[in-house]
Amino acid sequence: MNWEETIKYIRTKPEYRSLIETAYFEEDLPLNVERFKSGSEFKETLSLIKKYSNGGKDILDIGSGNGISAVAFALSGYNVMSVEPDPSETIGAGAIRRLREFYNLHNLDVKEAFAEELKLPSESFDIVYARQCMHHAYDLEKFLEELARILKKGGTLITIRDHVVFDEKDKQWFLENHPLQKFYGGENAFSPNEYKQAMKKAGLDIKLELKYYDSLINFFPLSQKDIEDLPATTEKKLKESLHKKIGGFANIPMVFKLYKRRAGFKDNRLPDEKQIPGRMYSYIAQKV
C-alpha cells in the first residue's frame, strides 16, 4: 500500500477510529482543519512562532499532508506556501487545493515538491514550519540545508513532532510498534544528535529543543493532566500486571516495590521517555 491507500483502508476499520481522529485523517477535510486549528497543539505552536519569529508573516509549510496546518496558518493571517510531494486529493496537495477553494483563501499557494528539491528563491520566507516531516527526510542534511537556504537571515525554523530514536535497536522497536508501518513501510526516525548536527551544519542556531515531556505539542493526544497523572496511572498498571502474574502476592508492599524497581519505575516520577517508542521532539532554530 502507499500512504493514500493506507489512510483510506484504516478509515474502514473501527480499531483505527481513535487514530483517525487524533491524527486528523477524517475524510471530511474542513472538519480536520477546524479541529486542528482549535486544538492545544496549534495554539501552543502559534505562541512559539510569535515568540521566536520577530513578527514574520511569510510561512513555508513543508510536508503539509492534507493541509491542516497550512490552512490553519492562512486562516490565522499568515501568507503561506504549502509544499507537499504527494498529489493526492485525500492526504496530499490535491486535498490542500480543495481546502483552499473551500475557504476561499488568497494567501495560500500550493507546490508539489520534496523539501530537498524546493527550487524556490533564496531568503524568501520568514518562517519555515515542518510538522511531523523532518524524520521522513530522504537526506537529512540536504533537507535542512534547503530549508536554511530559503529562510531569510534571522528567519525561524520550527520543526514539530519528529520521532526520535537513540540507537538502531530503539529504531527497530519504534518501527515494530508504529500502527501504520506494517501497511506502507514509510516510517523513519533520527537521533537528537543527528537532527541537531544537521541543523548546525546548515547554518541554523538552535534556540530550543523540546523533548517529549517538555511540551503538549509532543505528547498530544495526551493532555497536560494526563501527564501529571501518569505516575499514578503507570503504578496502577504495574500493580494490575503483577497481580495477573502472582495473584494476591502483588499486594505485599516489598514484592511490589521490587517489581517496580525491576520495571524501572520510580515513585511520583514520569516514566523514562525511552520507554515510549518513537517519542517525539520539536525544535526551534534561527538562520545565522
The average pLDDT value, as a whole number, equals: 94
Query: What is the number of beta strands?
Result: 7
> What is the tally of helical segments?
14
- Highest-level CATH class of the largest domain: Alpha Beta
Q: Which percent band covers the strand fraction? A: 15-25%
Name of the CATH architecture of the largest domain: 3-Layer(aba) Sandwich
The count of domains is: 2
Give me the Rg, rounded.
21 Å
Q: Helix/strand/pairing class, anyone? A: alpha/beta
Biggest beta-sheet profile: 7 strands, mixed
The neighbouring-strand order within the major sheet is 3-2-1-4-5-7-6
Instruction: Name the CATH homologous superfamily of the largest domain.
Output: Vaccinia Virus protein VP39
Task: Tell me the distance between the termini.
Answer: 41 Å
- What general outline do the C-alpha atoms trace? globular
CATH fold-level topology of the largest domain: Rossmann fold
Helical amount: 40-55%
Low-confidence stretches: none
Task: Spell the H/E element sequence.
Answer: HHHHEHEHEEHEHHHEHHHHE
